[in-house]
Design a protein that fits this description.
The protein is of the alpha/beta class and 263 residues long. It is built from nine helices and ten strands. The protein has helices spanning 44-52, 91-101, 106-119, 135-148, 165-181, 193-199, 220-226, 234-238, 241-259; strands at 4-13, 18-28, 33-37, 59-64, 67-68, 76-79, 153-157, 185-189, 202-206, 213-218. The strands form two sheets. Strands 6-7-8-3-9-10 form a six-stranded mixed sheet, with helices on both faces. A hairpin with a 6-residue loop joins strand 9 (202-206) and strand 10. Helix 2 crosses helix 3 (106-119) and helix 3 (106-119) packs across helix 4 (135-148). It starts with a strand and ends with a helix. It binds adenosine-5'-triphosphate (ATP). Adenosine-5'-triphosphate binds at residues 13-14, 18, 20, 38, 40-46, 209. Keywords: ATP-binding, Nucleotide-binding, Transport. Belongs to the ABC transporter superfamily.
């Protein structure tokens, strides 16, 4: 069981001058994919860093699998926008780094890494160095590095933000495929409304800073009712009336926050 729960979480920085989060209650179910969208600076990354154990709430509690988060742990893997691969290590060496840190025996490591290489479609590039790979391939290595640890929880902060539009689409489609084959509890931060609707089971919309939860949109029930899963291409899903409707709804809600129309 690897749910994530924010229980009345507030977070301030710098002796309280900057209030980033204000009384956030949010529950992400085991194996659920939840995306957070919200205006810049509303506290999205702060939510993720709290779940990762890189930061701690000023008040309230963050729980992963019913245990309060007190430090980073192997049950949670984090993927950031900047891939942060080691340039002097090959694809395989980059992917197996976390397993080495866990003192996993060499043969087991090899099997796990090869499975991840296969899953993420990097066969043939095992010995390549990051500078020999495109941005999309580098990000796939970063995602494989997270998956190989077989974490119960994946925390992804704008993981495709630095990619060009076409590569981004390929990565989004791949993540959906991976999520179906190997579901994990995912907290996904994005500025992309379409990306959120395409990937997530639910989309949480945050208010302007100090970030509070404004609304949670249930995408999964509509995705299932409207049979989005029949389509493997993002553009076909994005064409569906039900998709457009959800996207527009979230856009409006976000625009209210940006322009302050709701305040
Ligand atoms: N370590 C820190 N020290 C001081 N202030 C911080 C720190 N981390 C975040 N903040 C502030 O907290 C607020 C929320 O930041 P956060 O990065 O969580 O927002 P965000 O929603 O992820 O923003 P963006 O969409 O622009 O990435 C911002 O005002 C930011 O300046």
């Amino acid at each position: 069981m690897s749910s994530i729960r924010f229980d009345a979480v507030s977070k301030s920085f710098g002796a309280g001058q900057v209030k980033a989060l204000d009384d956030v209650d949010l529950a992400i179910a085991d194996k659920e994919f939840l995306a957070i969208v919200g205006p810049s600076g509303c506290g999205k990354t702060t939510c993720l860093r709290l779940a990762a154990g890189f930061e701690f709430p000023t008040s309230g509690r963050v729980l992963v699998g019913n245990a309060e988060v007190r430090e980073p742990g192997p049950d949670r893997a984090v993927v950031f926008q900047q891939f942060a691969l080691f340039p002097w290590k090959t694809v395989v060496e980059n992917i197996e780094l976390g397993l080495r840190n866990r003192n996993m025996p060499r043969e087991e490591r090899r099997i796990r890494v090869m499975e991840a290489v296969e899953l993420i479609g990097l066969n043939g590039y095992e010995g390549a160095y990051p500078h020999q790979l495109s941005g999309g391939m580098q990000q796939r290595v970063a995602i494989a590095r997270a998956y190989v640890l077989d974490p119960q929880v994946l925390l992804m902060d704008e993981p495709f933000g630095a990619l060009d539009a076409q590569t981004r689409v390929v990565m989004q489609e791949e993540l959906v495929r991976l999520a179906r084959r190997n579901p994990r509890t995912v907290l996904f931060i994005t500025h992309g409304v379409e990306e959120a609707v395409y990937l997530a089971d639910r989309v949480a919309i945050m208010t302007r800073r100090p970030g509070r939860l404004k609304e949670i949109v249930d995408v999964k029930s509509i995705r299932e009712a409207e049979g989005w899963e029949r389509y493997s291409r993002i553009e076909d899903v994005m064409d569906l009336e039900s998709f457009v409707h959800l996207r527009t709804h979230i856009w409006r809600s976000l625009r209210e926050e940006k322009t302050g129309a709701a305040h």
